[in-house]
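Hey forum,

I'm writing up a methods section and want to include a predicted complex as supplementary material. The small molecule is zinc ion. I've pasted the protein sequence and the SMILES. Can someone with a working setup run it? I'll credit the forum in the acknowledgements.
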Amino acid sequence: MTRGMLTLLKQSLKSVIPESYRKTLRRWGTQAVHFGWSRHCPVCNCRASSFRPHGDPPEPDAVCHVCLSKAPHRLAGLFFRNFADKLFQRNETCVHVAPEPELSRQLRRQCHVAGMNYRVGGFGTNYAEFFDLTNLSLPNQSVSLFYCCHVLNALIEDRKAISEIFRVLKPEGVAVIQVPAFCTEPTTVEALESEDERIQKFHDPAIYRCYTDADYRSRLQAAGFHVEVFDAASFPEDERIRMGLHGEVLHIGFRNAEHPVAAALRALRQ
Ligand SMILES: [Zn+2]
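Reply by user p_vandermeer:
Happy to help. Structure tokens for the complex are below, copy them as they are.
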């Protein structure tokens, strides 16, 4: 078949297949092309021969071909799957701020199965709801499961945002508040003064800080959270490779230190 005939065939199919079906077909096609047994994405649940490289210089085994999740999303996806029975509860509310499409699909599905209310939003008009993390339009103690990924490091007032998340969380709630890989300097590196400073330190004008692990924990604890971690390092090496996990750590805040998920995370570390 010539290139011209292929283009014509694609255009004909496009005109008769609705967009929603085309997305599914594209997904199936991608799954088929990259199918294999050596990799498993815990977000979209696909099996693949590899993850694709990403970044400059390219990091190998970085992005899922099918759902485009990166390693931090896959660790979060794995957490939501492993503790699903304790996190997703009928008639409770899950809030996902600044949603990543692939994790949003997973959380929406898990909430639907459990009969839980899934609310999604962010700072801007592109979202279903407007959520300013420093001034959440949610009642006190109304949220059972809260998730945001890589947002706090892009806020000037991160402590205010952490306090807001604590305020809206129910006494038995769980807040998964993910930040990027940790700084290896003795203390958190911040650039609050100017865009130039942020570009110089982080190569990104939207990033205000890179936390150390200890400082990030202390900022969460100062708001009242009991903090546990879900650490990629707690998995055997072959499992980490299979899921394309590197050195990610997920910090999870609880109001109740005896929450069953907190207890399970402590047990995992032992
Ligand atoms: Zn995936």
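Some notes you might quote in the supplement: The radius of gyration is 20 Å. DSSP finds ten helices and 13 strands in the chain.
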